Amino acid sequence: MAQPYDIVSSHKVSRSGSFAANLSFNQGMSLSTSPVLSFHSPPGSQSQSQSLANLARTKSLKPFQTADIKVLLLENVNQTGIEILEEQGYQVETMKSSLGEDELIEKIKDVHVIGIRSKTQLTARVLEAAKSLIVIGCFCIGTNQVDLQAAAQHGVAVFNSPFSNSRSVAELTIAEIVCLARQLTDRSAELHNGTWNKVSAGCWEVRGKTLGIVGYGHIGSQLSVLAEGMGMSVIYYDVIPLMAMGIARQVKTLDELLSRADFVTLHVPELPETKNMIGPDQFAKMRDGSYLINNSRGSVVDIPALVDAMRTQKLAGAAIDVYPAEPKGNGDYFNDSSLQSGKGAWTDDLRSLKNLILTPHIGGSTEEAQSAIGVEVSTALVKYVNEGTTVGAVNMPEVSLRGLTDQEPDHARVIFIHKNVPGVLRKVNEVLSNHNVDKQMTDSRGEVAYLMADISNVRQPEIKDLWQNLEDLSSRIRTRILY
Ligand SMILES: NC(=O)c1ccc[n+]([C@@H]2O[C@H](COP(=O)([O-])OP(=O)(O)OC[C@H]3O[C@@H](n4cnc5c(N)ncnc54)[C@H](O)[C@@H]3O)[C@@H](O)[C@H]2O)c1
Prior knowledge:
With 483 residues, this protein is of the alpha/beta class. The protein folds into three domains: 1-165 and 366-396, 3-Layer(aba) Sandwich (Rossmann fold); 166-358, Rossmann fold, CATH 3.40.50.720; 397-483, ACT domain (Alpha-Beta Plaits, 2-Layer Sandwich). Helices cover 33% and strands 17% of the residues. It is built from 17 helices and 16 strands. Helix 4 packs parallel to helix 15 (367-387) and helix 8 crosses helix 10. The longest helix is centred in the last third of the chain and has 21 residues, at 367-387. The termini are far apart. The site of nicotinamide-adenine-dinucleotide (NAD) has 31 residues, from helix 8 and helix 10.
């Protein structure tokens, strides 16, 4: 441990099926609760009466040429997410567990929307069998479990929830700052083992100390506010200039941050540039007796260098929530150094160190985060199913059009997902040429392009012909018409 020293110093829409089915479904609604509002209006930006007025004007769009929307939710998706989908009148089936590939292939055949968490593998083989599938919701942070390219090639959008747990991570970080400064976990472990060890040497208040935040995004900026609330002085380093929360100050270089901060906390994404961004050279530049917290990604810190910095008492403590290699499930992982293939037996090294808080990637693991993930992903699914909006999709270009209103009764929204090849727009516009195209937006991502157009003066009997003419284009991946 370092010698003590004085460390001074932020819907409702509808479903498809036969046209008659849509009509009867809508007859029960008094107001449209289009998620446009809930998505684009920050809380408090509109009065309730304004919101209700807008809701009344927003037109519910109906997916065309699919059966009633069937939703399959696996892996115990949070109740908040289930309720949003059920409120739409979709047929929602929930399962507590994941399904194996063969079971999934059988089950997914007539499903339009699937919701999964991290265990279900949506492979190219599964997606090939998913003939009715239009959208996937990953009720989690990562999307590695989905073959994103295969999904895009089948015209299936994928949504996740990367930022719903930002607050949870920020709060954990605050807790760790205090615990490290007070050697709290060591004192607790000692007493669990029967040892009364009342010490004040090397224990500090955090008030007045400098917190250095590396990566000032969703988590870093939340943390900044919380830390200032506790009387800390906040500096941050980011690759882009970012407006400070409160009175925090951005520094120009990582080195400057390392040399000034009493606590360094990492909140950067996993990128080639952030791999081992904290290694021997960076530890050398940190203040003697300072602290390091890594709640970002396991690749960001060079673990052997961290072990050295702890053993030489360069650091007075550290908190690590993420590791270069992590197990898929709960168990005896840190007892089995052979599992750390090619990385050395760093689990033993880490476990031997004092004032080192080790947690099993729980930064974002709270009830609130799970609930927020449910809301965010289900809302994105509803917006995609009902309005065709791809904002937030991880495998499709992000396209959005403002909602149609009740004053536009003969309008239809055409969605044409197609191969990104020359000449498509001309052919689509030929198909649409008997109608006025009120607005149109198209964008591409790799081999797939997404076109949305709102057309007027559409009589209902014409919709099926429009759909068929688009389906007949050779570039077509998937056609949807909402009306
Ligand atoms: N421990 C957990 O359970 C948990 C939970 C959620 C997120 N995370 C991780 O936390 C990290 C931050 O998440 P976030 O939601 O705040 O991300 P974010 O994308 O909102 O913010 C990341 C910030 O890092 C900056 N950045 C990128 N490269 C940088 C570099 N080389 N140097 C300095 N800054 C750089 C970006 O400009 C951005 O401002 C991610 O790695 C994420 O995977 C961990």
